[in-house]
Design goal:
The complex is a heterodimer of chains A (265) and B (340). By secondary structure, chain A is of the alpha+beta class. Chain A contains four helices and ten strands, in the order αβββββαββββααβ. In chain A, the strands form two sheets. Chain A has a six-stranded mixed beta sheet.
């Protein structure tokens, strides 16, 4: 006979094993980010000004007609591929002009992409493709110029990719980005453990299997189902910018200048 | 075929490979089911629901034997979902849709999720430029056992968010309506049971449901980890034990299932011997899944290194089958959809 007490322990065991695995996976990302930070400390971060684009980040997307656009027209985009590329050029720092070679193994971090639709004509053309099985294919490219941060190996006036990692070219300070993500993930880990602890407390509240205990059990089930998507959501939210999801949509206003603007989110 | 257009995508190539005589004979044999072997699948689901009902309503049935059997049959219920979403069990379309609802309750997830997640995305691996939502690379713990336990925590959410994105585009309203119906039945009935007797429902209904659903996700890791998913024949691991495949409705023959997705499951063993065995690396033809699991996840600590398994098909004779690219093109044309 499987008693309630035994099955309760099994259920709590499942909940905790699962919770710990989700937090352990998040901790794995923290560890990767800390490794990146330590590499940045070892190699140094070079900050400078690029007068012309020195790197590009591209996202290949497919747009398809939204299924709920009966009274509007909308295209939803899905990412297919991310590409980082050094186009070459020079970077002016406080003490030197440094050169980057085209085609270096690179990781390009951009803050955002200009992925909106330029005109109604462009939208209508894209929408016709988006209704077909193949979809509307596009490549969103962001060229990196202006203030730039680079993590790489400096040899005289040249910067190269280190042997064990790609050359990092960013539109913002990558150390701050990493630190903020570490903080976010740490908060996630602590919150998940705290919620699991609270639910365990409620589930074991005397009399066990009484009303409060049932509330704890119900919350435990909900938590078990939600902590998994929360784990993948936080993983996606802290993806390094070179492979961060762009996705987004275009919505057609009734006419140019009226209604909601064309946008990408 | 009563499966909606989207579901037919992954079986296009196989319909022409099923001998017409077999299909005709099967049709003559039963007015209800398409193939006489489907009764095995109906029996599996009936047994599973009986086990759940027995434990929920009768205290003497709440023992380790019933519970373990319910968990195992919960997994088999998900195997039936897989087969049913490739080829509907019944002749009648409405009955097939209703059966999906029954199966959804058994697994606590909408069975129709298999159409985009399995038939359209997983069957093509990364051919569409999109990662497979249940790719083995989703987990990366050094201790391999943790990968097996954790895999559903990643593959599950990726699958369901992928399905949400998939049904948000093009004209997939019929799919969406069926998806909602299945959710209402699966979650609604489970909720009713929880409200009526919370602990009995949680322990003896929900736990087996979740076990089954999570195990079918784990199968993706077991069948594809360290295989070469870019190859024509060495993308999957097969488990070929006869008893195992009887109860698993031949789901151990995974390579041929990928390559001929519409071949009825009862015909997979023969096709595996004929088409797959000469072209796959011997390490991908496992006799016993239990021994494989023990060896890979319990007796070893680390994930074993990948072998160049695809070498096996380079020196094998060419098969008279369309390539993956051709199959994908055919499937997309037939269904009017691609990937996402």
């Amino acid at each position: 006979m499987l008693s309630r007490e035994l099955m309760g322990l099994v259920a709590l065991g499942v909940l905790w094993v699962n919770t710990l695995l989700v937090t352990l996976a998040a901790w794995g990302i923290v560890r990767d980010l800390l490794r990146r930070l330590s590499r940045m400390r070892a190699l140094g971060v070079i900050e400078g000004q690029a007068k012309a684009p020195i790197a590009e980040h591209a996202v290949d997307q497919v747009g398809r007609r939204a299924s709920d656009d009966a009274d509007r027209k909308a295209i939803l985009f899905h990412d297919r591929r991310y590409e980082s590329r050094i186009v070459g050029g020079s970077l002016e720092t406080d003490d030197a002009v440094l050169l980057l070679s085209e085609g270096e193994n690179a990781e390009v971090w951009v803050a955002s992409h200009e992925a909106g639709c330029e005109s109604l004509e462009k939208f209508d053309e894209a929408y016709a493709w988006a209704k077909r099985a193949r979809g509307f294919e596009r490549r969103v490219v962001h060229a990196l110029a202006g203030r730039v941060w680079i993590v790489g190996k400096r040899e005289g006036e040249r910067i190269h990719a280190p042997a064990d990692s790609p050359l990092l070219v960013a539109a913002f300070d990558p150390r701050d980005w990493c630190r903020r993500r570490v903080a976010l993930l740490s908060l996630f880990i602590l919150s998940v453990l705290a919620v699991a602890g609270g639910i365990t407390y409620l589930a074991l509240y005397p009399p066990i299997f009484g009303t409060v205990s049932i509330v704890g059990g119900a919350l435990g089930l909900v938590f078990f189902l939600l902590v998994q998507p929360a784990g993948t959501a936080i993983r996606d939210a802290v993806r390094v910018p070179s492979v961060a999801q762009l996705r987004g949509s275009w919505v057609r206003p009734k006419s140019e200048g009226q209604g909601s603007p064309l946008y990408a989110e | 075929m009563a499966v909606p257009p989207a579901a037919s995508a992954a079986r296009v190539s196989a319909d022409r490979t099923s001998p017409p005589s077999t299909r005709a004979t099967a049709s003559k044999r039963s007015w209800l089911v398409r193939h006489p072997t489907e009764w095995r699948q109906i029996g599996i689901v009936t047994t599973y629901l009986t086990l759940l009902g027995s434990m929920y309503f009768f205290e003497p049935c709440r023992n380790i034997l019933f519970f373990a059997a319910a968990c195992y049959f919960g997994f088999l219920n998900s195997v039936v979902i897989h087969n049913h979403l490739h080829q509907g069990i019944f002749h009648d379309k409405r009955l097939n849709m209703a059966w999906r609802c029954v199966l959804s309750f058994g697994a606590l997830y909408p069975a129709s999720a298999n159409i985009p997640a399995h038939n359209l995305v997983h069957h093509h691996f990364e051919d569409d430029g999109q990662p497979d939502w249940a790719a083995p690379g989703a987990v990366g713990f050094k201790w391999n056992l943790l990968n097996l336990i954790h895999f559903p925590n990643v593959a599950g959410p990726q699958t369901f968010s992928g399905v949400q994105r998939w049904k948000a585009v093009l004209d997939r309203r019929a799919f969406s309506r069926q998806y909602v119906r299945e959710q209402v039945v699966a979650f609604g009935l489970t909720l009713v049971l929880l409200v009526n007797d919370f602990w009995a429902a949680l322990f003896f209904v929900v736990l087996p449901q979740l076990y089954g659903a999570r195990c079918i996700l784990r199968i993706n890791l077991i069948q594809h980890d360290r295989c070469d998913t870019s190859s024509e024949w060495n993308h999957s691991r097969n488990f070929v034990g006869r008893a195992f495949n009887w109860i698993m409705c031949n789901n151990g023959y995974h390579t041929i299932h990928h390559n001929k997705a519409g071949l009825h499951w009862s015909e997979l063993a023969e096709a595996h011997e004929r088409d797959v065995k000469p072209r796959i690396h011997p390490s991908l033809d496992e006799r016993s899944m239990v021994w494989y699991l023990l060896r890979t996840y319990f007796l070893g600590w680390r994930r074993p290194p990948a072998e160049p398994v695809a070498d096996a098909e380079r020196c094998a004779p060419a098969a008279d089958l369309p390539s993956r690219d051709e199959q994908r093109r055919e499937a997309a044309e037939a269904a009017g959809v691609t990937g996402l």
